[in-house]
Amino acid sequence: MAEKIMKAIQYFSYGGGPSALKHVEIPVPVPKKDEVLLKVNAASINPFDWKVQKGMLRPFLPLRFPKTPLADVAGEVIETGAEVKNLKAGDKVVAMLSIFVSGGGLAEYAVANKNLTVSRPPEVSAAEGAGLPVAGLTAHQALTQFAGVKLDASGPRSNILITAASGGVGLYAVQLAKLGNTHVTATCGARNINLVKSLGADEVLDYKTPDGAALKSPSGQKYDAVIHCAAGIPWSTFEPQLSSKGKVIDITPSSATMWRFLSGKITFSGKQMVPLVLTPKGENLAYLVNLVKEGKLKTVVDSKYPLSKAEDAWAKSIDGHATGKVIVEP
User: Fold this and answer.
1) Phi, psi at 16, each rounded to 5°
2) How do beta strands 158-162 and 325-329 pair?
3) In a 3-state reduction of DSSP, which class is residue 245?
4) Which stretches of the chain score pLDDT less than 50?
5) Is 124 exposed, middle or buried (0-12, 13-18, 19+ CB in 10 A)?
6) Which of 10, 16, 72, 236 has its Cα between 20 and 30 A from that of 282?
7) For 77-112, what is each residue's pLDDT tens digit?
8) 281 by DSSP, 3-state: which?
9) Measured between alpha carbons, how far is 134 from 281 in angstroms, rounded to an integer?
């Protein structure tokens, strides 16, 4: 039987940005025994994707070229591996693809592990679902595992700061935090203040104002946890705004973050900088999809692009001013 061919976007070396993305025709991937083959209906770009292209994770990622990027997809199951019992052909799903394989979501078809593929109900559009995996799971893990927020509001009252709250992770973090017993302060650009407030933030700061730059709560709150989604803010800015046991949870940890984390451990400091490395779990992704179904969580879509305009979507994400998720629809 002849191989089935699909359209995909790949890059063949480090660097080059949007102009290095190539439109190719490659074989449709074949699912392994614990995988499903998906027809991709929507995929979303995360900063992680173009940082890999830039070489910021070399020599670890990508493992080989050419690379088909994107881990976040929503689609329809076309074929299942022998060990897949919970999904069948025709099912609508949301999935997080492995970042270590060459076949990603910026294509007409992709393969996903059964453990990170969950059902997508009719109430959740493909674009809404595709926005969830990396950004939604990061926000969920930061709040529940690191900040100790109970999303059923059963936990103690806590004050949370979310930086860069109009980005992909930030917008989910604001909404999820408000499901818990929290007071949320958020920072973002002036044009997105009303949006972030509409999603539940109690206080929103323009990061370009003096108080915004200082992360100073208008009501004088000291933060029990910071979900840090921005970059370039030194520890000396965070430290005076934290409660005695306050944590800064850095979702894009740098060497400076690691040094501060280790320093805090050595000195038994009450205030800590904590690096977050995402540990995706299927049950958490299913939980987030259900929240969207119930109207308790919203995917904010900045823009949508066809696969033929993938370079424009890539450039939009790199620009750093997208409000919410940049979606590609093959």
Assistant:
1) 100, -20
2) unpaired
3) strand
4) 1
5) buried
6) 10
7) 999 999 999 999 999 999 999 876 656 999 999 999
8) coil
9) 11
pLDDT at 1: 47
What is the C-alpha to C-alpha distance for residues 80 and 76, in angstroms, rounded to an integer? 11
Q: Quote the CA–CA distance of 186 and 159 in Å, as a whole number.
A: 11
Write the pLDDT tens digit of every residue in 123-173. Answer: 999 999 999 999 999 999 999 999 999 999 999 999 999 999 999 999 999
Q: Which helix (H) or strand (E) holds 240?
A: none
- The residue among 89, 85, 81 whose CA lies nearest residue 30 is 81
Phi/psi at 37 (5° precision): -95, 130
Between the alpha carbon of residue 237 and those of residues 9, 233, 248, the distances in Å are 41, 7, 11
The length of the chain in residues reads 330
First to last CA, the chain: 25
Cβ distance 303 to 321 under 8 Å? no
**Helix (H/G/I), strand (E/B), else coil: 291:** helix
**Cα–Cα distance, 185 to 180 (Å, whole number):** 14
How far CA 60 is from CA of 53, 57, 164, in Å, comes to 12, 6, 27
pLDDT at 63: 76
Query: H-type helices in the chain, by residue range?
Result: 47-54, 126-130, 133-141, 168-179, 193-198, 210-213, 235-238, 255-267, 282-293, 310-319
